[in-house]
Write a structure and sequence with these properties.
Distance between the termini: 43 Å
CATH class of the largest domain: Alpha Beta
CATH architecture of the largest domain: Roll
Strand content: 35-45%
Radius of gyration: 22 Å
Number of domains: 2
Shape: globular
Structural class: alpha+beta
């Protein structure tokens, strides 16, 4: 549907039925017109569809929302902290749970910066520990939005350690998390689309849909398993 939007970096939102209606009624000779008012980065739009040069009846007018996209760099977040003895286990390396808390915090900040709304964690797809972080080293985290859906945002987080004596840095963990934006009533709210700029950002963006399908399948399988166990 991107070809019918007014400019690059803008995205169509609204009920799922919008896509169904447009998909059914637009063909090679059809097109979409739109009109509406601009307010606060959001545009409420009444779409009208023209097929074979004839306007459809008013019942086929579709209301949607177009929201301006945001660049990845606008919400990218960094965090650095010193690993002290209370942060570590008996091996002198940072607790995995402490790293998870850092990841959830920086990802939450990133998501809120992108949508400028309250957010909740919907899922943590993975937290792969690649190397330990030792006491006396610095933990460095970087997080950015990789992809958005209607009301959700996928965040990628990279965790590194830094030896403060030598300056050597080591990749220690990576993680993907999903957040949902909430409106003032605590209900899911639409979020701006994301505009990748660098090669790494495009890679995460282009592979995000596959990760989403994996998440949905995993959730469906778990729900089916719970029903099976209940019986």
């Amino acid at each position: 549907m991107q070809e019918f939007l007014p400019q690059s970096g803008w995205r169509l939102y609204g009920p799922e039925r919008i896509l169904d209606l447009l998909g059914d009624q637009i063909n090679e000779k059809g097109n979409v017109g739109f009109y509406g008012s601009y307010s606060g980065g959001c545009r409420m739009v009444y779409f009208y569809v023209t097929c074979l040069g004839k306007h459809l009846s008013y019942s086929n007018v579709i209301k949607g929302i177009i929201m301006e996209g945001k660049r990845v760099s606008e919400s990218r977040t960094y965090m650095t902290d010193l690993v002290l003895p209370p942060d570590t286990n008996l091996h002198g390396t940072i607790f995995g749970g402490r790293v998870m808390a850092y990841v959830d915090k920086i990802a939450s900040i990133t998501a809120m910066r992108h949508c400028r709304k309250a957010v909740v964690t919907a899922s943590s797809d993975s937290l792969d520990f690649l190397a330990p972080i030792k006491v006396g080293e610095a933990i460095q985290l970087e997080a950015f939005v990789t992809w958005t859906h209607h009301t959700s945002m996928e965040i990628f987080c990279r965790i590194q350690s830094e030896n403060l004596m030598t300056g050597e840095k080591t990749l220690t963990a990576t993680s993907y998390l999903t957040f949902v934006a909430l409106d003032e009533d605590g209900k899911p709210a639409i979020v701006p689309s994301i505009i990748p700029e660098m090669d790494e950002e495009w890679w995460h963006y282009n592979t995000a849909a596959e990760r989403r399908e994996t998440r949905l399948k995993r959730r469906k399988d778990r729900a089916a398993a719970e029903i099976s166990y209940a019986h």
